[in-house]
Write a structure and sequence with these properties.
The chain has 3 helices and 5 strands, in the order E-E-H-E-E-H-E-H. The chain is of the alpha/beta class and 139 residues long. Strand 3 and strand 4 form a beta hairpin.
Length: 139
């Protein structure tokens, strides 16, 4: 794989179900974290493309798995946040179910970036993700 140009990233698709994801080939790095921790802002900073991933000051705005194409069959993935969000409980539960299914079944997932807001120490859910990635040898 030659050098990836993050500045060439393009929105690919969004999905609310694992069945709606892009073909499970290549390599993906997903961004996960609490609602409003800065996942989308991190993606925009890494790519240098303001507005590539939509941001909001309201927790819970990322309600789908958003895929960004880097070329060479590589993608970045913005996952819905967990924890506090101004959405009904059934919607949050659906996010958890779909995110867990993505993490547990996606063959192209090569790494997970846990984003945290420095103002809020790691919480139990964050540690569960860290421990899970360690047990799966997922960087």
């Amino acid at each position: 794989m030659s050098n990836i140009r993050y500045s060439d990233a393009k929105y690919l698709t969004s999905a609310t179900e694992v069945s709606g994801l892009p073909e499970d080939t290549g390599a993906e790095v997903a961004f996960i974290g609490r609602s409003n921790s800065g996942k989308s802002s991190s993606l925009n900073t890494i790519t240098g493309i303001k507005g590539l991933a939509r941001t909001s000051s309201t927790p819970g705005r990322t309600q789908m798995m958003n895929f960004f194409d880097l070329g060479q069959n590589c993608r970045l993935v913005d996952l819905p946040g967990y924890g506090y969000a101004k959405v009904p409980k059934p919607i949050k539960e659906k996010w958890v179910q779909v995110t867990n299914e993505y993490l547990e079944t996606r063959e192209s997932l090569r790494g997970l970036v846990l984003v945290m807001d420095i103002r809020h120490p790691l919480k139990e859910q964050d540690w569960q993700i860290i421990n899970w990635t360690d047990s799966c040898d997922l960087p």
